[in-house]
Design a protein that fits this description.
With 767 residues, the protein is of the alpha+beta class. 19% of the residues lie in helices and 28% in strands. It has three domains: 2-306, Distorted Sandwich (Beta-galactosidase, Chain A, domain 5); 315-409 and 433-468 and 492-530, TIM Barrel (Alpha-Beta Barrel); 624-764, Golgi alpha-mannosidase II (Immunoglobulin-like). Bound molecules: alpha-D-galactopyranose.
Length: 767
Amino acid sequence: MILTEKKLFVLETAHTGYAFRVTEGGVLQHLYYGSRLPRSEDYDSAPVMLNQPGNALLDGDGLCREDLLQEAGTLGWGDLREPLADVTFPDGGRSCDFRFSHFERPEEASPDGLPSALGGETLKVVLKERTHELYLELYYTVFEDEDVIGRWSRLINDGKEPVWAERLMSLQLDLPADAYELITFRGAWAREMEFVRQDLQGELRWSSRAGVSSNRCNPFAMVCRAGAGEEHGDVWGLNLLYSGNHLGTAQINAYGSARLTQGMGPLRWQLEPGASLDAPQAVMAYSPEGFGGVSRCMHPFVRRRIVRGYWQDRERPVLLNSWEALYFKVSARRVVQLARSARDIGAELLVLDDGWFQGRSDDSHALGDWTADSKKLPGGLAALAKDVNAQGLDFGLWVEPEMISEDSDLYRAHPDWILGHADQAIGRNQYVLDLTRPEVCRYVCDSMKKLLEEANIRYIKWDMNRILGDVFSPALPAARQGETEHRYVLGLYSILAELTEAFPEVLFESCASGGNRFDLGMLCYMPQVWASDNTDAACRSAMQWNYSYGYPQSVLGCHVSDAPNHQTLRRTPLDSRFSVASMGVLGYELNPGELSADRRERIREQIAYYKAHRRLFQFGQMYRCPSPEGERFTMAVAEDGAQAAGVHFAALNRPNPIQAPLYCRGLAGERVYRVTNRPTEVRLKDFGSLVNYIAPIRIHAGSLVEKVADQVVKLPADQLDLTASGEAFCRRGFYPVQPFGGTGFNGPTRLMKDFDSRLYLWTADAE
Ligand code: GLA
């Protein structure tokens, strides 16, 4: 709900309130963002400083802006913090003073050429620069049920001369003096989303200059009052619907108050008379219930307001991806064989990854030439798709359309289509196409349409395997080079908008060497993202946990891969790889045909189990539950509370371990649940020479006898079966079956080897 009373503006969601007012002189003063207050007057209580403390400045109305909480900070009038908007005027000056003009309640409003969240109720506040014909429009959208507020801004030059936008942020959030902490998610390739928590003192940033939102620093961040935790404390979550460079700033000023801003990265945009510039939409959520509270706003928000179209609420297929099975060694025979073995384990979609197009023998060729390699796939894609379909599977394809290899027909025809100068640093032997040029976007769009029309392709993995470096477009004049990065993103979005509209039922999965472009912008077009090239269960368990602060598991592509893992060379139990991947959109990234029959059977059981509970795994509300140090316990609870799944992942095994309860979250307090664990396998070979204490004959580790015994002897697996109320599971917790303590093994013992896990399922009695 949006209340506008005299000069007070209050935006309320189901549980939160956000307020600002117009001061006497027309400056927008921020008042409050927190839990919803009972009366609108309650929000209107903050003071304004009308005296000059020491050497601070007063504006023409006698207002000291240095510590005034505001909605739209600028430079030059005594506010020393990061500005929302920064403009250079025709005389070269940058002092800028926006004052309230009027407000509107538009039915719909979204930034031009950029994606925006679906629905909501919008307020537009128009400010005018005091001495120039320059307008700043602030857009606020209330997503009531999700407790999220969207923000973006538009700069309009109504003057007679050009001005230059040096910065146009989407969001500014000023918070009163207190002790705060900033949580950001940083990393690198195969190491996405590392949780970084810092005291907020002085100035901190979270940003990307890679030309993509990047794995170096995800746009999602949280600010909390010092000491907040998973389930307690004031937390504000911020995110941005943008896939290019981004910038987040967090500052504590000389008076202890905080300013946060978020938007696209630095640019220099020339605004001709009559022209405007739109910032992408940012979103924020507040919760007094800690980080978990913010996640429970962001997850439904992403599911309902960001992901859209045919796949929004549809269960995603279990796929088998050819990358780690074949790498570049693609041939029609191998792909069909892979499809056969994929069908055999119960997968529903076969994705042919890199290596399928003309001359693509390794990563230095052919990007840009999107036709099937005539030697590898003599019948072309249409015939291959048919053969895969004949196995009862859908067919999906990998592409990397924004890129161009020097060794490609496209480069030979259009060497000037690359972004940057010919002499530049290159990544993965490839250049980036200059998507600021409409003719390049047309080529990309048309070549993708042709592919999708010529074969029965139901899924596209849209990859992007290098970052931007020399961001220069020969197609733009020198004075406009500062616009190149943003124009690239606008070009990309125009392609994605056209393609997803033309092929609404194709499932697109976004990828950029894994999670190098994991953001809300891409998710507006593509309902899932390949979260990381790292499929090691131990790494993934942590990474998915960290993604879950800001993103629901329905957008995370999670694959079971081979052991030893190709990224870490670590061996983790097959069931752990499954348990971890099951808390997301499950896929397999291995060659089932190369596994033993009993491994294939185990995978068949995994996929059948996942399919039986797929809605719960993909769309259940995620909870990060309390767990002993070094372990992780995550739950997904069905919307109606009738079922829940939980994965308990342990890292390193310890002898004689402490028996601690696990505490559930999200279960309906009054309902009675029965919990059981998915039967695990206990392998004889895991005991090594210990088996000789019970074996009638001597069994040597690694011997053929051990191999045979391992296949034949079935050891009892632990089985939990408990019934209690949801309240009891959450408050009192439950004890997993007693762990193996270094001696003694039988049925009632839970053997947790290194990187082992248990997958639990709660089912409620009928109401
Ligand atoms: C990137 C992706 C991988 C795979 C390769 C193919 O690294 O993240 O999953 O598709 O490209 O070249």
